[in-house]
Specification:
By secondary structure, this protein is an alpha/beta fold. The chain is 35% helix and 12% strand. The strands form 5 sheets. The protein has an 8-stranded parallel sheet with strand order 1-2-3-4-5-6-7-8. The protein starts with 12 loop residues before the first strand and ends with a helix.
């Protein structure tokens, strides 16, 4: 190579080694130091051609001189030889280890070699340049026998330790490795790595397990990647690729998302139209439950098992529809239109969220346990203003049953407000007035022509603008679709395994819920004090939030605090049962949502004419929640408490996959569920009769796991079958043991067959017990 040109030529990029230059050309170039200076930023050297005997050393000397004279080299690209000779490797090793090869300004290193072992020459070199090095491209023509060496060479990147966060790109091609876990470990050591590109060779594409291992390693260890590319010269099995994509949501666990929320936003589409299946906000909560919303501006924690109790500010915290979204109920659709809490002075209903304080109450008499007085006129006027506003929205010609009862009760409570009373009663009455005012407003909105039109348009999938209302949770896609097109904020709750593999989630915000200090901070900054009263109020409802008893208990307990009789309260004779009364306006309740509200009439008797009326389906019960009965013996309280603790984990009526739903011992509900105390006493007596035999069977069953039939055990100690029974089978067994069951009166074929089977089981249990006793006596 001969250097020609005037002295004022500025060289910014230099490539040498493409041709076969004579030695004197290299020496001439090495001596031309005037061409090199601060402007030279890119140096590319090819060591892979037929150089003269001293060619490798000449190129090495040239590169050292260039580096020593140029202070601003940012890109260095080294192409190592296509054939391997020990003397050439020694020259390259000396070059990389030379002190003059420390390039302080180096940002991008490209290393190309036909032999994987040459990567070891780079380890110390890269370590010296990590402070400013931003990208490493490793191009490897990996031979079959050297694949493992290539993987081991990548493992050396772990030696970067904390400074490895400067590495942002790895480009390796081809890659046909075996130790996939080591690759994941190496690349996870680079927390800022954003791009990974690999070429899959034939050996990898012929094994579906190997391909899936690649996906698994990358998904598990490289959650922060923005670009992941697998290229191949061969046709991949589409089923393998589909498997890998479908199992991407295996990373969507509560633990993983808490540490790496970006795994949920791989398929974000910020500028595209949103459908009901998309999520502008989404997150994973405890239990790997996904919470998604296509149209809300905040993400709320969905209620699961409710333990409803009144708090110090006379509300029910996250179980209260006045302050927190609730599961959508077709029988109470207006709860989704409750106004959101606000302190805005321009909002006429902002007075409904003002909690009275001691300054709003004037004490006239006080004792250790009782405070008597009345509200100040200013606070009474604010409550009257809110109540009048709500009542003025009711049309004179309305026919809604709930509005009639609620309006009457609201008038009555406002009239009683001016009278004096105890502090607790007056504060509870004020809470009732605020609650009724807001619920009347929501009910009027649901019945209005505006929302009727939205409901009609939603059935034809015409989407309305999102309203500033409370919204609702739902697990039903049809309900979610209706609320979404009506413009009501909706949060879809589902198991993360049920999400599609390409689920769109644009953002992963924190989920709003009551914190450990008993405070709830809403999306607009509104703060709700959820701390308990002193002393705490009793828990008035335990169970699923969508049950009617949830809202009935809220209204009933508030009524009891203002002096209404409990019999009146529970029967609902003088008080609107809040959300239960809305069923009188079923014309606005979506027909598609009325599934499971009615069922066919019971089985016909032979000579009795069947009724055409339908009756509601009996509510399903959480089998872990014990029915409260005064006849439950105190000795079973610890059992009851244990089952209550397990109630949180029973989120499904159907048993989970690979989970045995049978019981070793009889469920307590099968003993105490009867309303007849005599029946309960007989069932307990039946259990006491068979208890020794069952416990003996269970003890022998557990010990038989460690002893085989070949050891000469007695037949009673050999496990013929595992002793477990379902809840219905246990009830049959207890009825037979206690003498309650009368086979002649049982006209149900299913029940008769079940009792017959359990009678046989009981006889076998008795025979085993006798045989065991005889053999033990003989011993």
């Amino acid at each position: 190579m001969t250097v020609l040109g005037p002295s004022f030529v500025t060289v910014t990029s230099l490539t040498v080694g493409y041709s076969i230059p004579p030695t004197n050309a290299l020496e001439s170039l090495a001596g031309t130091h005037s061409l090199f200076g601060p402007s030279l930023k890119t140096v590319v050297v090819f060591f892979g051609y037929a150089l003269p005997p001293t060619g490798y050393q000449d190129l090495a000397n040239l590169l050292l001189r260039i580096v020593s004279l140029s202070t601003n080299v940012r890109h260095l690209e080294l192409h190592l030889p296509t054939s391997y000779y020990p003397e050439e490797a020694d020259v390259l090793q000396a070059l990389l280890d030379a002190k003059h090869m420390q390039i302080s300004s180096l940002r991008h290193l490209v290393f190309v070699s036909s032999f994987c072992r040459h990567i070891f020459n780079l380890q110390a070199f890269i370590t010296c340049h990590l402070e400013n090095l931003q990208r490493i491209d490793l191009f490897m023509d990996a031979l079959w026998s050297m694949n493992l060496s290539f993987i081991q060479s990548l493992r050396s990147l772990q030696y970067f330790n904390g400074t490895a966060d400067q590495v942002i790109s790895v480009d390796s091609r081809p890659w046909a490795g075996y130790d996939y876990e080591s690759v994941a470990e190496v690349l996870e050591a680079c927390p800022h790595l954003t791009d990974f590109d690999c070429l899959v060779e034939a050996a990898l594409t012929t094994s579906s397990e190997a391909l899936l291992a690649v996906y698994s390693a990358v998904f598990q260890a490289l959650r922060h990647l923005q670009s992941f590319t697998i290229r191949s010269f061969y046709i991949l099995d589409i089923a393998d690729v589909e498997w890998a994509v479908e199992n991407e949501n295996s990373l969507w666990t509560f633990k993983n998302v808490s540490q790496h929320p970006e795994v949920l936003t791989r398929h974000a589409a910020l500028n595209k139209e949103v459908s009901v299946f998309d999520a502008v906000l989404g997150n994973i909560i405890e239990g790997d439950i996904a919470v998604l919303t296509p149209n809300a501006n905040a993400l709320y924690y969905p209620p699961r098992i409710c333990r409803v109790r009144l708090r110090s500010d006379y509300h029910y915290a996250t179980d209260d529809p006045v302050y927190y979204p609730q599961p959508f109920d077709p029988q109470a659709p207006h709860l989704a239109l409750m106004l959101t809490p606000t302190r805005a002075l321009n909002d006429p209903y902002s007075l409904a969220w003002i909690i009275p304080t001691s300054d709003d109450f004037k004490t006239t008499w006080e004792s250790d346990k009782l405070v008597v007085g009345h509200f100040m006129n200013s606070y009474i006027n604010s409550l009257r203003k809110v109540a009048s506003l709500a009542l003025s929205e009711i049309s004179p010609d309305h026919t809604d049953g709930f509005l009639k009862e609620a309006a009457s009760s609201l008038d009555q409570q406002v009239e009683f407000l001016a009278q004096g009373g105890t502090k607790k009663v007056l504060f509870a009455r004020a809470a009732i007035i605020r609650r009724l005012s807001l619920e009347i407003n929501a009910r009027v909105c649901w019945l209005s022509a505006k929302w009727q039109q939205r409901f009609s348009d939603a059935k034809y999938r015409k989407k309305a603008q999102v309203a500033n209302v409370m919204g609702a949770f739902t697990e039903n896609l049809e309900e979610a679709d209706l609320l979404f097109h009506m413009g009501i904020p909706v949060w879809r709750v589902t198991q993360k395994d049920r999400l599609p593999p390409m689920q769109r989630i644009d953002h992963v915000p924190p989920v709003i819920k009551e914190d450990s200090f008993g405070m709830l901070f809403c999306s607009d900054g509104f703060m709700v004090d959820c701390r308990d009263a002193d002393p705490p109020h009793k828990i008035i409802y335990e169970g699923f939030p969508r049950k009617p008893e949830h809202y009935l208990s809220i209204a009933s307990y508030m009524q009891s605090l203002v002096g209404l009789g409990e019999d009146e309260t529970t029967m609902g004779s003088k008080w609107p049962h809040s959300t239960l009364a809305v069923s009188k306006a079923a014309g606005l309740t979506p027909s598609i949502l009325r599934d499971a509200t009615v069922t066919a009439s019971p089985r016909m008797s032979p000579y009795v004419r069947s009724s055409r009326k339908h009756r509601p389906t009996p509510p399903k019960k959480n089998p872990f929640i014990v029915i409260s009965r005064p006849t439950v013996p105190p000795a079973l309280e610890s059992w009851e408490q244990a089952l209550k603790l397990l109630a949180d984990y029973n989120q499904s009526y159907k048993p989970l996959v690979q989970v045995d739903s049978r019981f070793f011992l009889p469920p307590i509900r099968k003993i105490t569920s009867s309303s007849n105390p005599q029946v309960i006493a007989k069932l307990i007596f039946g259990w006491l009769c068979i208890c020794p035999m069952v416990l003996s069977k269970l003890s022998l069953q557990s010990s038989s796991d460690h002893r085989g039939a070949s050891t000469g055990q007695p037949s009673c100690e050999r496990e013929d079958h595992e002793w477990r029974a379902g809840s219905k089978e246990w009830r049959c067994l207890l009825e037979i043991a206690s003498g309650i069951y009368d086979e002649a009166k049982d006209q149900d074929a299913v029940s008769s067959r079940r009792h017959l089977e359990m009678k046989s089981q009981l006889e076998n249990l008795l025979e085993e017990s006798k045989e065991c006793d005889i053999e033990r006596i003989s011993e």
